[in-house]
Amino acid sequence: MSKLFLLFFVIISFSCNESNNTYKPLSSGRIHSVSVVVNSNDWKSKIGDAIRKSYADEYLGLPQIEERFSLSQIDYETFSGFARTSRNIIYINKRKTKSYSIVKNKFARPQLYLEISGTNENEIIEQVMLSKRDGIKAFTNGEIIENKRRILQSPLMKTELQNKYNIDLTMSSAYKLFKNENNVMWFQKPTKYGTSNIVVFEKNYKDDIDLNDALQIRDSLSKAFIPGRLENSYMITEQAYLPVFSKTKIGKFDAYETRGTWEVKGDYMGGPFLNYIVKDTLNNRMIFLDGFVFSPSQRKRDNIIELQSIISSLKIYNKEWGYFELESSLFSSSSFNSFLNSLIPFPKPPINSEILFPPKRKSITTTIIIICQGPIATRLVRDITLLV
């Protein structure tokens, strides 16, 4: 195999779309946790009830009830220093006219600060309810990005997805290829009490998908490919509860999302699943991505959120486009990310690069688009030109 000699030109610029260039510490906090700044009496009153009802309601698609966000109350007097570095904050302000607003990176980076204001109890409760849609969307998207950031900080797995499907997923090296047969790849990560799993395969393109289609595809694959512990047992979608089905997007591609619970026919096993069917218009096919968790008697919300973060990292390449190889190894997004992050001095957030190579030619110049996923103290690698 011939080797390619790559010459990199790195241009450094000074912008990350920050309105305030003063130093801010890195944020902290567990995944899907929100600090609520409000006095103890209000937290125990109807105001607290409204906040819990809006932001700690049930997370859909789990076998047991778990809250959407884990809320912790902080009094105004103690909201200083390290407490202000929480990644997600809801601040109740009783000294302003009724409103709500979301501010990014107010005290730390990355951070979402939702301020809800009103001069009396009824006004604050009203604004809590009005803020729910925007607040949940902002916090949820922020947590997906945070999960991706944490994955990028760990050693990344080099998958065979690019060779087999012309796609890429960003997942940690804790995931191993568990099974690879009949055009299906199954990745699995051992956890303390079970496993987290991602199954990938492709099907012929179809203009539209409904819930019945999604479940038929999932159950037929599970029956053939995901056996249970006992002979003649296999995974199926749990029939006692109707899954939640919706249209969404993975990157720029239309997709169908199904959330629900699975069980094993002929055995006593079960857990939550998260399924995406992506309409790959580049290659005229459907990409099936199924994440499921097995963790008996344990909380599973954070496991599902991690799987969602991995699946949302999907990159699709045109099958007619080529990949460049360096020292006999695939030159992939993950390896290029590692190269970029090695250039940035501490504190260095992860950078995620999306690499699109044109059809093979003898000599090309390709611009690499860099996506900043975290704070950089003073500089950001903005553009990189790759000469082959």
Note the topology.
Elements: E1 7-13, E2 33-37, H1 40-43, H2 46-55, E3 70-74, E4 88-93, E5 99-104, E6 112-117, H3 121-153, H4 161-165, E7 167-168, E8 176-181, E9 184-190, E10 195-204, H5 211-225, E11 234-237, E12 244-250, E13 253-265, E14 270-280, E15 285-294, H6 301-312, E16 315-316, E17 325-326, E18 329-330, H7 333-343, E19 351-354, E20 365-372, E21 380-387
Parallel strand pairs: 2-3, 2-4, 4-6
Antiparallel strand pairs: 1-21, 5-6, 7-16, 8-9, 9-10, 10-15, 11-13, 12-13, 13-14, 14-15, 17-18, 19-20, 20-21
Keywords:
single chain, 388 residues, alpha+beta, Protein Transport Mog1p, Chain A, eight-stranded antiparallel sheet, disordered N terminus
Descriptive overview:
This protein is of the alpha+beta class. The chain folds into 3 domains: 7-19 and 329-387, no CATH class; 33-152, 2-Layer Sandwich (Chitobiase, domain 2), CATH 3.30.379; 171-312, Protein Transport Mog1p, Chain A (3-Layer(aba) Sandwich), CATH 3.40.1000.10. It has helices at 40-43, 46-55, 121-153, 161-165, 211-225, 301-312, 333-343, and strands at 7-13, 33-37, 70-74, 88-93, 99-104, 112-117, 167-168, 176-181, 184-190, 195-204, 234-237, 244-250, 253-265, 270-280, 285-294, 315-316, 325-326, 329-330, 351-354, 365-372, 380-387. Strands 8, 9, 10, 11, 12, 13, 14 and 15 form an 8-stranded antiparallel beta sheet that branches. A 5-stranded mixed beta sheet has the order 3-2-4-6-5, covered by helices on one side. α2 runs parallel beside α3 (121-153) and α3 (121-153) packs across α6. The radius of gyration is 23 Å and the shape is elongated. The two termini are 16 Å apart. 32% of the residues are buried.
